[in-house]
Amino acid sequence: MAQTCRLGLLLALLLPVVGASMPSTVVRLNKAMLSYVSESGKAPLQRAMQVTVPHFLDRSGEVLGPPGEVQILHVQVVRLQLKFVDGVGVRLFAAANFTIKAFRVPEPLELILPVVLLADARVDQGSIGTPVVSLSSCFSLFNKAIVLDGSHSVPPALLVRVQKHIRAVLYNKLCLSVSNLVQGLNVHLGTLIGLKPVGPESQIRYFMVSKPIITKDYISLDINAVLFLLGKPIVLPVDATPFMLPEHVGTNGAMATVGLSQDLFDSALLLLQKAGSLNMDITGQLKSDDNLLNTSVLGQIIPEVARQFPEPMPVVLKVRLGGTPVATLHTNNATLRLQPLVEVLASASNSAFHSLFSLDVAVNLSLQLSVSKVKLQGTTSVLGEVKLTVASSNVGFIDTDQIHALVGNVFEKPLLDHLNALLGMGVALPNVVNLHYVTPEVFVHKGYVVISSGLFYQN
After folding, report:
1. Does a structural domain hold residue 347?
2. To the nearest whole number, what is the mean pLDDT of the chain?
3. b/e for 141-150, b at 16 or more Cβ within 10 A?
4. Global pTM value
């Protein structure tokens, strides 16, 4: 099964998965990938072709012997070519040389049998939302065997009968071997719909929403990404619109072109907001020389704080995101807007926290996207000024300009550290087990993101 699966897994490079009711993601696998699959697939195909040949019974009623067996010593795939078949799937052409040894008296017979294998694999949508591959045709063509040195004393009639026996066996078994590879591939493709972690309590699942579009240049899969929080799907408040990836985007010559819609980013941000992942507490150490989070510093600009807390006490900023973050995708530009509520609390002498005031904050961030192995990751930086307005106060009048200079500086760095650590964890892109994206390039367009990448299968 292991050797069966290896080529199947490599052929899975042709079929990364994705999809649900409407596509939020499109994956195109281009012709540039076929040469990689063809080269990488030679070794596993050779092993799959190493079939068992039953004993040959001569016309005299005796088997070749002793021990009366025919063995395939070696299979060399000298050429493996894959190409897309418009509206069908993938066509396989393989040319191989079989080195065969037939045991006979007084000396064994060794020969090389050239074989050409042709197969068409149809790609459809499975009932569980994965691609399903099936052989629509398969047959073998045989050339004349070449007798190796030392076997020239073989009677011509016997050589003809041995070749006929071997060809009959291979004609049946080679296509069966390819069929077994396809079955192993379909089992492997089942991992495409498995839940992949996003955070401690959240996952993402991809599945196909329709039959693949197959042209002579690519296979395109429309897929949907569903995000789950505590086992429940994240649903956008408005109906998503179908996503269509334009024909010519990304880098020419890339193995894979992946399009990610605005809806996918909206769903991911809604998940983070509902999970509370963007909430945070910012605290300071009271005895730190550069600590600004204490009542003594606040008391210098807010007299009521100084009156209520004559002794320096620690201050905590509780950052809570009531609204969903908004990602905006423009050409060559991705931004993220957060509008958290920041509550400023001071620790009282009895260890309880006393609310001093709260701030409505608006911060615009530049969003840089990258891909590592199978994950889409992000980093942010602040664009312009962090805007603060007083939402409520238990300490009287607050000068917004003065509090902005103090709280803005304390707030900005921890927010970026927290957000970048969160986005650095990444979200899994459509993939199969052991398949990675390599040398990816990320392009931002109005309303969607494109990833152009190579692919690498790691054993």
Report:
1. yes
2. 85
3. ebeebebeee
4. 0.85
